[in-house]
Amino acid sequence: MKRIFQYGFALALAACSFAACSDDDTGENGVKTDVTLSPSTSLTGVSFSANTLNVSNNGIYPSASIAVKKADGSALSGVTLQVELSNNSASEEWCQIEPKNNALQFTVQPYEGGEAARSIDVRLTGSGNGVSINPFTFKIVQAPTPKSAEAHILDFSIPEQTQPAEIDYEKMTITVNVPFGTDVTALTPEIEISAGASVSPASGEAQDFSQPVKYTVTAEDGITRQEYQAAVVVEEEKSHEAEILEFTVPGQIGKAEIGENTVKAVMKAGTNLSSLAPVIKVSEGAKISPASGSTQDFSQPVKYTVTAEDSKTTREYTVTLTVGGEVVLDTSAEPAAGVTLSGNNYTVVAGGAAAATTVKVSLTYSGSPIADLTGYTFAVEATDAKSGAAAAWVKVSQVDASGAFTFTVDPNADENARRATIAVSCTDNSGAKLFGSGSVGISQDGTEVGAQLIELIDVPGGRFLQGDSPDPTSVIGNARYCNLTSFSIGKYEVTQAQFEEVMGFNPSEFKKDGATHPVESVSIWDAMQFCDELSKREGYTTFYNLSDIQYGQDGSGRILTATRNCDMSATGYRLPTLAEWEYAAKGGAEGIAQYSYLYAGGDNPLEMGWWRENEGEKTHPVGEKPANPIGIHDMCGNVGEWNHDWYERPYMSDFPSTDEVTDPFGPDEPCDADDLAFIRGGDYDTSSEWNLRITYWSLQAGGIDMNPNNMCRQSGIGFRVVIRR
Q1: Which of 50, 276, 565, 589 has the fewest CB atoms within 10 Å distance of its CB?
Q2: Is the per-residue pLDDT at 258 higher than 70?
């Protein structure tokens, strides 16, 4: 009985005591005395009842020491204690009591099995120092740990699975995905279940999963049961294709040459190859490393690895970029009579045929001009912007020995304006050098003024507080009073069909959704150019008169940047100013007097506009949401709308509330390098209803971010037009 179980539980006694029987007599060892046991009140897991010490399996401190005292509570000293255990056929297996320093050291092993409680009888005696202890007896009883009622499948795995099993504890189902082609008639799942439980069929037994298999889990208590339906889903066959389909780098000349394991592309003269971020299209479902859009040093060939959807098939490509040359078109020569030049765009009057206009051609290679054009072959082509076919109405010559060509334009008998692009390409006879094409634009008005394309709403002028709101918390900085002249504004945002009819192309991200959706993915320069082209079409004088136009290299026709030369006396179309847009959104003077809506036409953002809570991740046809008090639609959500004003701080300290202005247009030039302009109304991707409020505005660079990863943001920007009658 000397062995101590190190992992056992100790007995603890409650703050009560048991006394031995007393006969008030003296024995041969001295005065007889009754004793009590005095446990620590901090010990838990035991209780006394009817001379029985009940011991639990939880919360018992190991090797608990219980003091032995005289019945009156005084200390017992100099007495040697003796303990006898009886009724305990296996006392060495679970319980030890060791006398020590007028105390009993208890150690009890956990009781994890069995159906009934186990017990022992304890008899305590002792003598010494003239004292003899009257025998003190008590019983120790320990109940077994209750059996668990847990009956769960915790994990279900098959060696063939492609991802962890999905266990639904509400529906009691298990779903496992396996690759295409897997034989499901003999799969061997490994099953983890609740402690002490059992499962049938057993873990590790092969099963036919052509149909769902029922598994029954029985808890440790033998009573509780749960049934699961385990189904194996065979995935569709994954593609083995691992190819680079398209490879595009900013500054790239033409299309990349994609071979079996190589990609070759030629860059414009002067391109720095050490830091380029190509956009790469690969086979459906495949992945590429390094990733598309990541910046790489192409001073040396770069290796790319394409991994197919099946995660097994791979192909390695070596990408080589070289610096080539470009065709430069010099438009400094005086155009012929009837032809005007703005930037690199020639405008031809609508009347008779224009006289031949000369354009000078030059070449550069690796940033240096090529003086001798001998041995180079030029091709000059005119393409109609609307049809995409050859522009038969533009006659072009080939490049002559002096490095120049001419163009003439046939009379325009159509009432609609027409546009074309003249592109000049060049290669040398050896094919060793590739040159990027140079281009100029050709525009010609129609012979008659066409019908009005944009439906307009007349907005009578008036005085209003710009920046105010019925919700005091939504006022952005200081407000100011504005006096506005009457104007007319588009009933709807400009649609894709309207933009394409005027401009000859459609840059929209969501063009497949329909012509009645608002045009988007336009720069502020695209919007201004549209206003001028629409003005020409309908016989008005142009307002913006863009020059120094730079187009993107993606072939979309979008303008990256330009210079505007506003004619404040012009009669034509333009973008609404900040003040005009807000005034119209509030319903003009009449709407402001009768209504105080948070949004253009109402106080419910879900009812008044398309945004992230209801849009379905795309734009919607114009006019589907209710109009505001004066009949204007979609001034909250769908697409954000460019305003005329360059960035300034109209609601902040620059304009205290005491200021009062008339027809404010903002600064003549942008005050930052990014051409920051204002966006009003929020868009389909707006996450907060705050951004849809009439008084809310945001800022956006006026140009187009050519990084395809950012195109989603650009797709949220469109515009509507205004005109003063």
Answers
A1: 50
A2: yes
Cβ proximity of 516 and 508 under 8 Å: no
- Residue 165: the pLDDT is 96
Q: What are phi and psi of 640, to 5 degrees?
A: -70, 155
Does 153-234 carry CATH code 3.40.1280.10? no
The torsion defined by the Cα of 565, 570, 575 and 581, in degrees rounded to 10, comes to 130
At residue 172, does pLDDT exceed 80?
yes
Q: What is the mean pLDDT of the segment spanning 541-556?
A: 82
Domain 26-142 falls under CATH 2.60.40: yes
> Which range in 137-151, 204-218, 540-554 is most confidently predicted, on average pLDDT?
204-218
Q: 629 near 450, Cβ under 8 Å?
A: no
In Å, how far from its chain's centre is CA 149?
A: 43
CA proximity to 662, closest of 577, 590, 596, 542:
577
Q: Taking all residues of the chain, what is their mean pLDDT, rounded to a whole number? A: 83
Per-residue pLDDT band at 7 (split at 50, 70, 90): very low
Give the C-alpha separation, 26 to 30, whole Å. Answer: 6
3-state SS track over 524-537: HHHHHHHHHHHHHH
Question: Does the pLDDT of residue 423 top 80, yes or no?
Answer: yes
Query: 148-162, 214-228, 258-272: which range is least confident on average?
Result: 258-272
What is the CATH architecture assignment of 244-323?
A: Sandwich (2.60)
The per-residue pLDDT for 76 is 87
CB distance 468 to 479 below 8 Å: yes
Does an H or E element contain 259, and which? none
Radius of gyration of the chain (CA): 44
Classify residue 159 as exposed, middle or buried by CB count within 10 Å of its CB (0-12, 13-18, 19+).
exposed
How far is residue 379's CA from residue 568's CA, in Å, rounded to a whole number? Answer: 42
Could you tell me which residue, 478 or 661, shows the higher pLDDT? 661
The whole-angstrom separation of Cα 554 and Cα 562 is 17
Burial zone of 314 (CB within 10 Å; 0-12 exposed, 13-18 middle, 19+ buried): middle
The Cα 67–Cα 139 span in angstroms is 17
Percent of the chain with pLDDT over 70: 85
Strands 173-178, 225-234: pairing is: parallel
CB-neighbour burial class of residue 431 (10 A; exposed 0-12, middle 13-18, buried 19+) = exposed
**In angstroms, rounded to a whole number, what is the distance separating the alpha carbons of residues 600 and 628?**
5
The span from the CA of 546 to the CA of 524, in Å, is: 11
Superfamily of domain 456-609+619-676+704-723: paralog of FGE (formylglycine-generating enzyme) (3.90.1580.10)
Cis peptide leading into residue 201 (ω within 30°):
yes
Q: Where are the beta strands (DSSP E) in 402-503?
A: 404-409, 418-428, 435-436, 438-444, 456-459, 462-466, 480-484, 487-490
CATH of segment(s) 326-444: 2.60.40.10
Tell which residue, 475, 531, 527, 486, has the closest CA to residue 663.
486
Angle between helices 496-503 and 524-537 (to 10 degrees): 70
Instruction: Select from 217, 193, 201, 207 the least CA-distant residue to 160.
Output: 207
One DSSP character per residue, 645-710 reads EES--TTSTTS-TT-EEES----SS-SSTT-EEEEES--TT---GGGGSTT-EEEEESS----GGG
Tokens of 200: 């049938």
List the chain domain ranges.
Answer: 26-142, 153-234, 244-323, 326-444, 456-609+619-676+704-723
> In sequence order, which residues have a C-beta less than 8 Å from that of residue 259 and are 6 or more positions away?
none
DSSP letter, residue 623: T
User: Which H or E run includes 605?
Assistant: helix 605-608
Query: Does the reported pTM lie above 0.90?
Result: no
Q: Average the pLDDT over 58-82 and give the result.
A: 79
C-alpha to C-alpha distance for 550 and 3, rounded to whole angstroms: 93
Please give the Cα distance from 426 to 397 (Å, whole number).
15
